[in-house]
Every structure is written in structure tokens, then in C-alpha cells.
Predict the 3D structure of the following.
Amino acid sequence: MKQLLNHFLSWQKNIAKLILSLAIMIFVSSVFTVPALATGVYNIPNLTSDTWIVDEADLISRFNEGKISTAFDELAKQTGNEVRIVTIRRLDYGETPESFTKALFEKWFPTKEAQANQTLLTIDSVTNGTAIITGDRVKSIMSDDIAQSVASETVLVPLRKGNKYNQALLDAQSRLVTVLSGEPDPGPPEVTDDVQVEGTFTKAEETDRGNATAWVVGLLIAATVIPMATYYIYLVFQPSSEGNKE
């Protein structure tokens, strides 16, 4: 009986070690996988003539992506003004939407001439941060104030109503195409009282971290309880000293 309990105790210790190892792996994974999802300018592919949207954050439905791309393509053919939208899930450490957009703008359009009729709008889905940059010729048609309004109002109002990314990008496309076609600016969407200043929705990374924390806590508890339970079982079934003397 004693030998059987010793085998059982050894097996339980190995299980406890395995549980601790799993807890450590989950903790490390939850901490260090987030930076791996960060996007830098070097992650964005080179621009092609038929690229109007780079949806790295996977925010837009295929139908709406096609609709927006068609509108931008027609705008380019009719006016020579070109618009690109880039969505990213997370910025590199120390990067801002503005610095990212500027760097990508210069990567895709390295000269002043190439930049002249270009507009680039970016969205970071983790913070819902936005930025826009335009070329010199575009500025004569669409002022910097209007461009900033597109990024900070036209895009953000639908996001504050519940992260409606498709609606936000469709609204941005409509306003940009209208202004860059030489028509009067329709202005930003009307803000109603039910707009939330700060979103109350749990972000994906917060949910992931919460789940990881729960797993780690559960495994640590198991790693503590199992050896203790085994020890008490061992004490219960261990022959008494008086019995051994007999």
C-alpha cells in the first residue's frame, strides 16, 4: 500500500510540474504575443496601381471594400486625385497614427511630384486613432481643415456609436470623393446626444488578456491544491507508527 501511495505521490508531483509549466507558457504568451501583432511601415506591401484599400486590421467587408475601391478608382480616372485607406490592428511601439501615415506616404510616394495628387487615410483599430495626409495639389481642392475633419469626425462618429468601421469608411469615402470631385463639402456627420465619448466595449486584447489571466490563476491554484490534497491523502492512508511496531 505504501509503495502504491509513493507512486501516486510521484505521479501527482509530475502533474503539478506540468501544470506550472503550462501556466508559465500561457502567461508568457499573453505578454509577448501582443507586440508580434504590431504593424510598421515595413509590413505594408508596396503600392500597386489597383490598390485603394489595405485592410491589415480586417475591418471592412469584402462587399464594402469593393464598393469603396470602385469609387476611388472612378475618382482617379475622372480627376486624377487618388485616395488610399489603410487599416492596421496595432502600431509599433513609439509610433503614432500621424508618424505612421507620414512614413507610409513617403514610402509609397517618395517625391513631391508623386505625392501631389495623393490622399492617405489610416485607422488604428486598437485605439481608433486616425490620421490623414494629402499632397500639394490636393490641398488646393481640399483644405487641411476638411481633411482633418474627415479623419477626426467623419470616421470617428460611427466608431463612437459602436465601432461601426464599415459605416465609418463608407462615410469617409463619400465625403472625400465629393470634395475631391470639386463639389461642395457636405461636412461631417451630425453628432447626436447618444454618441458615447468613450467606447464601453471591451477590446479584443483586453478579452484575451482576461482569459489568459483566468487560465494562469486556475492552473496555479491547481498546482497548489493537487500536491496538498495528495499529501493529505498520503497521511490518511499511511500506516500508523503503532501499527508498524506491531
Q: What stands out?
A: The first helix runs from residue 2 to 36. The two ends are 17 Å apart (CA to CA). The chain has ten helices and four strands.
